Amino acid sequence: MAQTQVTHEDDVAERHRNLPLGAMSRTFSLTGFTIAILSFVVSDMVNQGYDPVDETISRYVNLPHGWLVTVGLLGFAAGTAALATRTAGSGWGRGLLWLWAGCALVAAIFPADPPGNWSNPSLAESVHGVAAWVGLLALAIAIAGLTLRWRREPAWASKARGLTVLAWASSVAFVLFVVAMADAMAFTHTAPLGLAERVLLGLYLLWLALAATGPARIRPLAAGSEGPVTAGDRA
């Protein structure tokens, strides 16, 4: 009995020590996502060389203020990585968040080519493209899987409706983006690829930001417990 009491008190003490870490990861996530949104929006405003309806965000790296695109991708990656640290015990969904964060980092390091170079891409464009597609698909699956998982958990009740709506919307947006990309590469070349991408990334960012405000799941409980520690909305 005494040993059980000590173990329980140790778990409680560990939880309270981890609360500041949960709050820090939430702040870091939201800061990263805010930087991403502001960087992409400002890039569209100050870089007047391309049409945002037609051209993807990554193409803007080739314009005078192209560094904004790099900053936005780095913010996206950092915010997602911080969110992944909050989701201990979320299985493969957490792993896919880490995969997206890594792909966003690679996409930031290897810039896209200027528009009109589909048939002869540079090495940087090829790496950027593969990272982007792998990352976007991974994030789409992560959002669907984590939404389904968290909807069943009481701690996520206040976020469940919003996460579900954004998950459905981003899934539809992903399909439309794939269709627009196929058209831009092989068919009529008239689909609004840039707009489709911006809608998709905007919905992704909204879902990630909402998820970052949810309860932090910092570490697994001791053996024999039912699940990870949940630090609550304050974390």
UniProtKB/TrEMBL annotation:
<feature type="transmembrane region" description="Helical">
    <location>
        <begin position="27"/>
        <end position="46"/>
    </location>
</feature>
<dbReference type="Pfam" id="PF06197">
    <property type="entry name" value="DUF998"/>
</dbReference>
<dbReference type="InterPro" id="IPR009339">
    <property type="entry name" value="DUF998"/>
</dbReference>
<protein>
    <recommendedName>
        <fullName>DUF998 domain-containing protein</fullName>
    </recommendedName>
</protein>
<feature type="transmembrane region" description="Helical">
    <location>
        <begin position="130"/>
        <end position="150"/>
    </location>
</feature>
<keyword id="KW-0812">Transmembrane</keyword>
<feature type="transmembrane region" description="Helical">
    <location>
        <begin position="66"/>
        <end position="84"/>
    </location>
</feature>
<keyword id="KW-1133">Transmembrane helix</keyword>
<feature type="transmembrane region" description="Helical">
    <location>
        <begin position="162"/>
        <end position="187"/>
    </location>
</feature>
<keyword id="KW-0472">Membrane</keyword>
<feature type="transmembrane region" description="Helical">
    <location>
        <begin position="91"/>
        <end position="110"/>
    </location>
</feature>
<feature type="transmembrane region" description="Helical">
    <location>
        <begin position="199"/>
        <end position="218"/>
    </location>
</feature>
